[in-house]
Amino acid sequence: VPPFYKGGNGGIYVEGDFTGVERSQKERTTYEERKPLIFSRALADAIKETVTKGEQVLLFVNRRGYARVLLCRECGFTLRCPHCSVSLIYHAVDASMRCHYCDHRKRPPGRCPRCDGIACGWLGYGTQQVEAAARLLAPDASIVRMDRDTTRQRRAHRQILRGMQQRRTQILIGTQMVGKGHDFPGITLVGILSADASMQIPDFRAGERTYALLTQVAGRAGRGDRPGHVIVQTYNPEHYCILAARNHDYEALYNIERPLREKRGLPPFGCLILLVVASSHEGQAQERAERLASLLVGQAVSSLAVEGPAPAPLYRLKGRYRWQILAKGPDPSTLHHWVKETIAQLSPSEQTGIEIDVDPVDLC
What we know:
By secondary structure, the chain is an alpha/beta fold. It is 31% helix and 24% strand. It has two domains: 14-65 and 125-261, P-loop containing nucleotide triphosphate hydrolases (Rossmann fold); 271-358, 2-Layer Sandwich (Alpha-Beta Plaits). The chain has a six-stranded parallel sheet, sandwiched between helices. Strands 13-14-12-15 form a four-stranded antiparallel sheet.
């Protein structure tokens, strides 16, 4: 949105690789409402047909691991990280539950720790479960997974890409790293799973980022001599960012996003500083955040504004509780001076634990 706003009406100026927009004549995109399965019938049939023809498939899911949540269906208990306010994610490779923030690990329990029930099951899926489903669907195909877990070793990333270039890999499954500018002429089918996931992030840029992600990943299909086909699985096929990506219409997205941001003074109509107050004591984090917000309001002139304090979307991280404040202003110099002078009024002990993010890339 900011690049388009600054570019005026003379053209569409967007950051990043949006090859899918430029190659729209070679691509056919199908958007399907998600059913409670990993692959819809249309996507499953397309995968088998593409592999049979000797062409390559890219399956994108921006979640690593096997399952997102271990849920007890008797009492509703979910296994969560003791240090972060997130659920532990199951990794089938080593049969462990992991926190993707602090790397806390433990074995999944045989019974529910709360009610001692045995009706526990997995909810959600990541790259590992998609890989397992793909192997059942196409047992003779060469399948490779590309995510942070499979690229930890030196040169593993290059080996995976080389396998795609040499067409030794028929199905590539991966997270966001598979869509960043790679040119694989053999890919004629792209399947985007759980396209809604990025829209659920509590950030005003969620819609724009979903559009960017969809068009970027879709652009991997049809880059060779054969036309490409993109199938997007979504629970919200009528959402404006999904429709904009389907129609390759960034201007439609901009026309919806612009008034929403302008009303709240968000970029590109204002500047932001995100202040995160963290403490190992829950009450202390809230108390310091409320004091800082009160000082900011007291020092603010009419053009400056404060949102918060409020618990951060990731409320507890590595044992520290987090509250956040969003400071907004029309120009960076006034905003920076206001925040700097206000924080200077705090004692050294109160300043400890305050994280300052100027022009934050994300708010969570």
